[in-house]
Amino acid sequence: MALDFVLPTIHDNADGSWGPSSSALEMGPLGYSAYSKFDKVTRIADWHAETDAGASNQRGRQQQQGRRQGREAYGAGDANAFGYVHDEDEKSFSLVDNSSRAAARGRPGGLRGRPTGGRGMVSGQRGPQRGRTIGAPQRGGYGWRGRGGGRGGYGGYDKPQRTRDSSVAIGPEWQVLEELEFSRLNKLSMGVDEPKTLESAGTLQGYDKAFDRINTRNLKNLEIQERVRYNETTTEDPIIKKLADQKAATVFATDSILSVLMCAPRSVNSWDIVIERRGDQVFLDKRGGAPFDVISVNENAMDPPADSDDLNGAASLSLEATYINQNFTAQIIDPKSKPYTPAPNPFYDTAIESEPLASTLYRYRKFDLSIEEDEELDLIVRTEVDAYLGKRSHLITVKALNEYDPRQQGAGNKALDWRKNLDTQKGAIVANEMKNNSVKLARWAVQSYLAGAELMKLGYLSRANPRDAQRHTIVGLQSTKPLDFARQMNVSLNNGWGIVRTLVDMVLKQPEGMYILVKDPNNPMLRLYSVPEHAFDEEEEEELVHHHQPEEDE
Fold first, then answer.
1. What Pfam family is a match for this entry (predicted)?
2. Are 320 and 328 in contact (CB under 8 A)?
């Protein structure tokens, strides 16, 4: 027999407001806490409930939303009326372990191995034109297009983003294999042991210590030095060809190319590295007329030099900086010093060339980039040093920073005049250069480290007249140890080696052929493309024809 069902008493709220009627509030000692429609109603036992801070923020948003919509947030002040808190016990209790765990830092590309130490490799490209330069500027000797990348910091958020050109025209048949964001590259790390110097060639002379006495009260003019200096690409180096034939390493490169890759996350301008895999060997190379042949100016500034053809445009300033570095490096040589020539310059042909050589010693050094104990992965890099100090006991590299016009765009915010302030406020000037030329200075420090140089000599050169880019004055000099300078700029060598190893692993997974790594001109990322084998042959032929054409009289 069915049981009788008795309908419970329903308290109707006659006034139509939200919540129970006044009669329902007469509940004895239990009490009642008002609430709002916008309060989050959860389960009685909700193990996925938000944290105290999250729930508080949620309630605040709900209450604020109710006020914006013209409704009162009922119960806003009584939300925790019945909340039980036991500080000592509850805070230490958790059903599921939500404690943060330190992210395991793996080897680049998921590699595992010993925490420090690794073996390296080098790569290059098919034969571009010879990189011969002399002290005086050459018309048509440099080609550089485009700026790229993003900038951090504040102050430029309201300016329209500049659209920049890529350093190389991307062919329609090129295939994207990998995309590497700078945020990912910054997390890579790999330790590398001390390298071995396999061979040395070229002629090295002593440093003239008289340049250490130059200051703003004792200036010296920059002089044009008619001396030949070479910046050959990897695959055009006869010593690297010999070492590659001997299977002395897996990867081959030059210090200029390798430093760009190791400092990639700092770069703003677009650049590219041509990579060729031949069998089990990888060559990192440059194209003819690539940005590696010139030096950027204030690339990392918040308001960099404009992409114009005038005196203070980005391309003109880069050509000027390259011209200054070539001449300054040759000028600081002591003509009375004894030359050191362990082997002849591999690029100088006495049968067809007669100009005197600039002081340069090429050191071919092998780095071990392996991870596992039974792995063999070596990198041979051609490095350069510019002079020696003392009785060849200290090898040094020489670089030059240049000031063009502190009032012009890209010179830096409220830049100090070097002629007036270098002696008294050198720290502020150096800090400004580190900010505006972060990638350039980082590359110089890495190149000096790769070469095994004990000292870096940084010259400060200013235009004799802000409107004349041909005459310059040396206003000061600074000596620093490469590793100390790298630490001062927060340059991580382990991060650089991690980037190199990651790229090499990517290429070794691909079949034999030609590839190119391009820095995106407008985004902080790198792209690895697969390209046809003869993709750059026509471009190289055009460059060679251009460089062999006689110059017209001005």
1. eIF-3_zeta
2. no
* HSE-CB for 302 with a 13 A CA cutoff: 13
* CB distance 369 to 351 below 8 Å: no
Residue 307: what pLDDT?
Answer: 86
Q: What is the largest CA-CA distance in the chain?
A: 124
Can you list the residues of the chain whose pLDDT is less than 50? 49-57, 59-130, 136-158, 543-554
Res 144: pLDDT: 33
Structural domain contains residue 68: no
In the chain, % of residues over pLDDT 90: 56
Q: Are 248 and 510 in contact (CB under 8 A)?
A: no
- For residue 203, being part of any structural domain is answered with yes
Of the candidates 376, 379, 383, 377, the one whose C-alpha atom is nearest the C-alpha of residue 367 is: 379
- The full 3-state SS of 364-399, as one line of letters, equals EEEEECCCCCCCCCEEEEEEEECEEECCCCEEEEEE
pLDDT in tens, 290-343: 777 889 999 999 888 988 888 999 999 999 999 999 999 999 999 999 999 999
Burial code (b: 16+ CB inside 10 Å, e: under 16) for 36-62 equals bebbeeeeeeeeeeeeeeeeeeebeeb
Q: What is the pTM of this model?
A: 0.71
pLDDT recorded at residue 516: 96
DSSP 284: E
Residue type, 424: T
Q: What is the pLDDT of residue 535?
A: 79
Instruction: Note down the domain range covering 216.
Output: 108-151+158-548
Q: Which residue has the tokens 């003019």?
A: 221
Number of residues in the chain = 554
- Which of these, 435, 529, 410, 548, lies nearest to 490 by C-alpha position? 435
Looking at residue 438, its pLDDT comes to 96
Q: Please, are residues 216 and 476 in contact by the beta-carbon 8 Å criterion?
A: yes
Strand partners, 181: 525
How many structural domains is the chain composed of? 1
Alpha helix (H) ranges present in 402-492?
Answer: 418-421, 426-436, 438-451, 482-488
> What pLDDT is stored for residue 124 in this prediction?
34
> CA 183 to CA 108: how far, in whole Å?
13
The answer to whether residue 36 sits within a structural domain is no
